């Protein structure tokens, strides 16, 4: 086993399926009390004081991973799920926990049914052209 | 450990995030299209679902039930430090359509990718976006070896409304995909302007 617990060269491969059932990480919870569903592109941002999440013994390694990734740069829910190889539903619950204890906050995308500002759309077009 | 109230110091840049969906039949090139413009190798998110949990998407008691994994490939384009566009390939199988409702919420618009050899594969996607008034552009992926049809013929075969843009594209080609995406945003702007006009008059 690798020292960081994240190593890819495990003795089992992905075909074996997850060793820990995904929702075990949320202690069976599938929803988070405080959060309504987080959009896939909602951005998770760490609070300035969230510099030592390992110190909190109530946090799971996955919680710590999320804080660590988001501290480097804010991450969308979809990116966190892909990066940590966890189902989106699990990430939502874990992010909800972190919001509750104020280690992170979530920057919600434009509310549904409300198109973003025309200026933003123009910026998107210009940005795409400049790619 | 007790944390004080969150103090907003100098926060990192919190980007505005937008999403465009990429829909179409199986094997039509959705992930290829995403990969052609994404700055990251298309990532995959997965969601576990129970058959019983559909369509309310309540996954309680998920363990031990018939769980299904729905995979969504997505890519990212950072347009500016504070403006990020995500592209989501929608799950192809029709039985996962309830997932689209979540994906399409707040989406800027969509690309329906079509293959002229299997045009019927994208009927359902066209129908879906039409019903929900989500702005979409049909991109006809010009596969090598597939017969080329005039845009008007494809348009008729799809029974598209006159205002829905239809473009020929190559899902592997970055410039081509950029044009398709710009088309989606332009169409979204037009549709929003039309709607505003309809409200005010």
From TrEMBL, chain A:
<protein>
    <submittedName>
        <fullName>DUF742 domain-containing protein</fullName>
    </submittedName>
</protein>
<dbReference type="Pfam" id="PF05331">
    <property type="entry name" value="DUF742"/>
</dbReference>
<dbReference type="InterPro" id="IPR007995">
    <property type="entry name" value="DUF742"/>
</dbReference>
Automatic annotation (TrEMBL), chain B:
<dbReference type="InterPro" id="IPR052705">
    <property type="entry name" value="Gliding_Motility_GTPase"/>
</dbReference>
<keyword id="KW-0342">GTP-binding</keyword>
<comment type="similarity">
    <text>Belongs to the GPN-loop GTPase family.</text>
</comment>
<keyword id="KW-0547">Nucleotide-binding</keyword>
<dbReference type="Pfam" id="PF03029">
    <property type="entry name" value="ATP_bind_1"/>
</dbReference>
<dbReference type="InterPro" id="IPR027417">
    <property type="entry name" value="P-loop_NTPase"/>
</dbReference>
<protein>
    <submittedName>
        <fullName>ATP/GTP-binding protein</fullName>
    </submittedName>
</protein>
<dbReference type="InterPro" id="IPR004130">
    <property type="entry name" value="Gpn"/>
</dbReference>
<keyword id="KW-0378">Hydrolase</keyword>
């Amino acid at each position: 086993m690798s020292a960081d617990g994240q190593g890819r060269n495990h003795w089992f491969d992905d075909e074996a399926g997850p060793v820990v059932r995904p929702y075990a990480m949320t202690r069976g919870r599938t929803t988070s009390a405080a959060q309504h569903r987080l959009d896939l592109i909602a951005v998770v941002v760490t609070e300035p004081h969230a510099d030592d999440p390992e110190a909190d013994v109530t946090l799971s390694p996955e919680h710590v991973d999320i804080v660590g990734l988001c501290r480097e740069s804010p991450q969308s829910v979809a990116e966190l799920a892909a990066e940590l190889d966890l189902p989106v539903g699990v990430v939502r619950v874990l992010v909800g926990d972190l919001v509750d204890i104020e280690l992170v906050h979530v920057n919600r995308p434009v509310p549904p049914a409300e198109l973003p500002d025309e200026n933003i759309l123009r910026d998107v077009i210009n940005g795409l052209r400049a790619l | 450990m007790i944390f004080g109230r969150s103090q907003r110091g100098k926060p990192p840049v919190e980007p505005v995030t937008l999403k465009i969906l990429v829909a179409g039949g199986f094997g039509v090139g959705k992930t290829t299209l995403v990969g052609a413009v994404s700055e990251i190798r298309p990532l995959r998110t997965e969601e576990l679902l129970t058959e019983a949990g559909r369509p309310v998407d309540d996954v309680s008691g998920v363990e031990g039930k018939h769980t299904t994994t729905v995979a969504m490939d997505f890519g990212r384009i950072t347009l500016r430090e504070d403006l990020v566009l995500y592209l989501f390939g929608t799950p192809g199988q029709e039985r996962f359509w309830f997932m689209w409702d979540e994906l399409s919420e707040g989406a800027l618009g969509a690309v329906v990718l079509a293959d002229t050899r299997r045009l019927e594969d994208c009927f359902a996607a066209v129908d879906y976006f039409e019903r929900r008034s989500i702005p979409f552009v049909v991109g006809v992926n010009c596969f090598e070896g597939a017969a080329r049809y005039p845009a008007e013929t494809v348009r008729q075969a799809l029974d598209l409304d006159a205002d829905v843009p239809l473009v020929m594209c190559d899902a592997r080609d970055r410039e081509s995909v950029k044009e398709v995406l710009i088309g989606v945003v332009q169409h979204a702007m037009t549709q929003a302007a039309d709607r505003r006009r309809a409200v005010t008059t």
